[in-house]
Amino acid sequence: MRSLVVCPNWVGDLVMAAPVIRALADAGRQVVALVKPGLRPLAGLLSGISTTLDRLPDDRGTIEAIRAAGCAEAVILPNSFHSAWLPFRAGIPRRAGYRTQLRAPLLDPGLPLPRDHRRRPQIADYAELLTALGVPLPPDWIPRIDLPAGLAERGRERLERARLRPGEGPLVGLFPGAEAGPAKRWPWRRYAALARELRRARPDVQPLIVAGPKELWMAVRVHEESGKLHPVIGPELDLAGLAGVLAHLDLLVTNDSGPMHLAAALGVPCIALFGPTDPRRTAPAGDGHRVLYLDRRCSPCFRRRCPFLHHSCLRGLTVERVRDTALARLAEIRPPGGGGAGT
User: Fold this and answer.
1) Per residue, what are the HEC states of the chain?
2) Domain with CATH 3.40.50.2000 in the chain
3) For the whole prediction, is pTM greater than 0.90?
């Protein structure tokens, strides 16, 4: 049986969907993944996908491609109307999704979305969809990405071109961005201060600033404010190339973001800074991560911008606290004076 997976539109959500794809493949399905073109390189790293279709701006072309794939069922992970409309118009008989945004007539089966769904792990949403289709649940919900050797080697070469030395001092990535809005971003000046503090506390640490094209301005500001010592890596890479770089890090300090989930799936420990979002729902999966969350009275609000303008849920996290957490985790991974390569 061929199963269409309408994949999420965000990097982190797609990474978290990896166990869904794995479960379908383990159940004997041939998985056809419908993804935005920019996410195709990432989808290519997820095990279990047989065919990848681009979600084109032109609905007609997308629907024709879905119809030609000959799928008997669809798992619709996003909750938008349009995500359900495409497999419905393509004539897929079974279409599992949540009855949101007036799309109940487009679904069969359609599931009610619990009112408190934002306060439960996102994987619980995915588990209910698999159960509705009679698919056995995966043994665990930890996304895992195994990089091809060539991709990992290209990541190492990119780091070396930036005069970083994988396998020597600990490589610590700093990701100041978050595509879902400024409310999710720890102030960029604090990332610059953190880079200085880490080098002061452990001179063997090699910080680098991770960025996508949309975070370039922020990354450049961190680079300049921290003394123009730490390279910016990522804006020129696709998601597979970024994964090749992240895989060599010993630690990533990051906002709640797509690179956080991507690094975690590669086995890289994360220091995850949460503010307006809920770590119960989207914390990095697996062991070895540290989540810093202040749990203010107004959080989690899930807003793109702080409605009270004070942004205290993230501004309340001091540089000293993040530094101490990062150093403590580094001491466990790469003790000062110890050898051995990172992840």
Assistant:
1) CEEEEECCCCHHHHHHCHHHHHHHHHCCCEEEEEECHHHHHHHCCCCCEEEEEECCCCHHHHHHHHHHHCCCEEEECCCCHHHHHHHHHCCCCEEEEECCCCCHHHCECEECCCCCHHHCCHHHHHHHHHHHCCCCCCCCCCCCCCCCHHHHHHHHHHHHHCCCCCCCCCEEEEECCCCCCHHHCCCHHHHHHHHHHHHHHCCCCEEEEECCHHHHHHHHHHHHHCCCCCCEECCCCCHHHHHHHHCCCCEEEEECCHHHHHHHHCCCCEEEEECCCCHHHHCCCCCCCEEEECCCCCCCCCCCCCCCCCCHHHHCCCHHHHHHHHHHHHHHHCCCCCCCCCC
2) 2-132, 151-333
3) yes
